[in-house]
Amino acid sequence: MIFEVGDKVIYPNHGLGIVERIEEKTILGTTCGFYHLRIVANDTTVLVPVANADGVGLRRAISDEDVDRLFGLLGDGQIDNHQNWKGRFKDNSDKMRSGSIYDVADVLKSLTFLAKSKSLSFREKRMLDRAKFLIISEVSEVMCEKAAAIEDRVDRALEQCFTTKARAAAPRPKVSRTAAVPPPRAQAASAARRTARAAS
């Protein structure tokens, strides 16, 4: 994927950045292009090799349609729930590095849900905070809304997610199966037939 000066891009685990310039540098005799990104959150500059942009997961910010899909995912009631800490941390770390906002949403859902039942480790708490920040900052920029308004919308979507999951997991009430009792007229007709058969 090729970017141009002025493009808003997402650098995994760093958040929203703006391509301020593209220049060539010669390092150890090899000349290659670099994107100069200004990371909006902390106003720092990072250099990303043009040839390695896809490899590090650099992508354009999501569209308005993607925002709708994102909130649908946040509220769908589907939550990855790894019991093993090491496996969970590795999977979540891979998702955070992928660059996909949908992967980050999965991390946000699973860790927020987990935090409701137990205390998270320091590393997972930091990952949870990072996931929420990355989603809020990108959606805020795309929708041109304040971060506080987006955070409220994210929190409501997560509550919907947990409510949906709880409903799906709740045991269904048992339906009592009693023998059907025929109406009085049907009972009388049945008794008359039995009497007629006995008399014949």
Mind explaining what this structure looks like?
Helix 2 runs antiparallel to helix 3 (101-115), helix 3 crosses helix 4 and helix 4 crosses helix 5. It contains 6 helices and 5 strands. It folds into 2 domains: 8-60, Thrombin, subunit H; 64-168, Up-down Bundle (Methane Monooxygenase Hydroxylase, Chain G, domain 1). Strand 2 and strand 3 (30-39) form a beta hairpin. The mean pLDDT is 86. It is α+β, with helices and mostly antiparallel strands and 200 residues long. 50% of the residues lie in helices and 18% in strands.
List keywords for this structure.
200 residues, 2 domains, alpha+beta, Methane Monooxygenase Hydroxylase, Chain G, domain 1, 5 strands, Thrombin, subunit H, 18% strand, 5-stranded antiparallel sheet
Short description:
The protein is of the alpha+beta class and 200 residues long. 50% of the residues lie in helices and 18% in strands. Strands 4-3-2-1-5 form a 5-stranded antiparallel beta sheet.
Question: How would the blueprint of this fold be written?
Answer:
Blueprint: E1 8-11, E2 15-27, E3 30-39, E4 44-49, E5 59-60, H1 64-74, H2 85-98, H3 101-115, H4 122-143, H5 147-169, H6 184-199
Antiparallel strand pairs: 1-2, 1-5, 2-3, 3-4
Helix pairs in contact: 2-3, 3-4, 4-5
